[in-house]
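Recall the central idea of this unit: under ordinary conditions, the amino acid sequence of a chain determines the structure it adopts. In this exercise we apply that idea directly, starting from the sequence alone.
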Amino acid sequence: MPPKAANRRPTSWELRLRRFGHVEPPRTSTRDRLAVPFPEPGSRLWRALGLSPAAAGRLARWSGWGGPLLVALLAGLTRFWRLGSPRAVVFDETYYAKDAWSLLRLGYEGTWPDREIADPQILADPQVIPLSGTGSFVAHPPMGKWVIALGEWMFGLNPFGWRFMTAVLGTLSVLMLCRTGRRLFRSTALGCLAGALMALDGLHYVMSRTALLDLIVMFFVLAAFGCLLIDRDQARARLAAALPVDGDGHTRPNHVTGDRAGTGARPWRLTAGFFLGLAAATKWNGLYFLALFLALTVLWDVGARRVAGAHHPYRAVLRRDLGWSVLSLVPVTVLTYLATWTGWFLSDNGYGRHRADGRGGTGSWIPAPLRSLWHYEYGVYQFNVGLHTPHTYESNPWSWPVLGRPVLFHYDAPEPGKAGCRTTADCSQVILALGTPLLWWSACCALVYLLYRWAMRRDWRAGAILCAVAAGYLPWFLYQDRTIFSFYAVVFVPYLSLAVTMMLAALLGPPGATEKRRTRGAVAAGALVLLIAWNFIYFFPIYTGQTIPYADWRARMWLDTWI
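Accordingly, the structure predicted from this sequence is:
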């Protein structure tokens, strides 16, 4: 802090505000405002456990990775526990598990008999795989199915094999969220809390143990979000380093630097484009993240140049940053998307592969394989927007945040004495794609708080979280007449966890708060986290398909719409 600023006398208005408990925020240098440093990790906890100062310091330094790895390990143990159970084709696994095997064997999606015939044959012993080489029309791009195919390549076409990779990505996403939250909040503890909250979410848990595409989209989008955060930090650090230093060793805003300085190579933004391409190549809703994340990076660049002293930050971004932002994200995303279709391009029997061969027209200068893919994808678009087949568990997006209509993935009713049913009455085996209720209902409050932080306090962290939630949630309102399901919401579960974490951090109180205030906040925040953990444990049997008495299943149906 400059000496003059440190010794500045408070104004009369500031003196009045102090009577009501107002605490002036600490004044920081421009360099620190641009590149907020990570605080030194504290070792008080480790010293309290009896470790020497040197050992406590080492553990504190390792906590930046040690804490997230521990949270991810616990998440992985729960996700891989009895992963092959139930030995059944759960919900839409009937499409993606078989298409993944077809990609592995043919390079494109072949044709299978009806599910009533094919599924029992796949689960039989000895197994029969009734795959035909005739290309089949499918509703989603191939990337997510290639991911599922990796597990099938290692373990075979069986429930454990086709669920293996979603369990891996579910575990790794917890690790990524811990590290992402750490960078976002500049706190290892808050980062680990965000990851732990997602590990305790029932929807994320069920989707991590089911061979569907939506968790794979979530993983790639979260990876892109983390890459953009790293890119933001690095670009701002380069701007900070370019600022002139005065005689006292302090940095000041400088309009020449803010308007004209470059930010150098930005490989993390290219990496984000790669992951967004993989997300769009899994399901098309990944494209909405590309659009909103591009706008988010532009606004981040505007904010950085404004802090650096630019007189015209928008003009500076238009001149120095916008073009590279678009080139870093859009072409990389498109090329990545096309690369995931390599198996189809190299095939002769993929659906519609040679449709454009030998055809003229205004677009005849475009290579025939690309035109064939365009026709194929247009047909997929028409199918997806026109899907209006009624379904028992379809739901409107308005009901998703409050868990109005979860999706039943699997149900069986074992008779007494069979399949672990130890009661005289019937039992239930259920897998319900239901978010942990207390976490989701807390997230509804947290999103309101973040709207306040973003609109009234200009908190960029709140804006980033809200942007990601909006990209994953709001586009579904365009298709309210379409058959859609609440488990699509898993794509924005990481950002709900970040929102709840930010709300809990505010509940703890600011760093300058009194010990009494901090203690009360810690008790309240800890109580909520414990309730969320209890809530996850309580619903655990209906997340995993365990055999429980019918009355126990009925007791967990808190809302009639869950049945």
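The first helix runs from residue 3 to 6.
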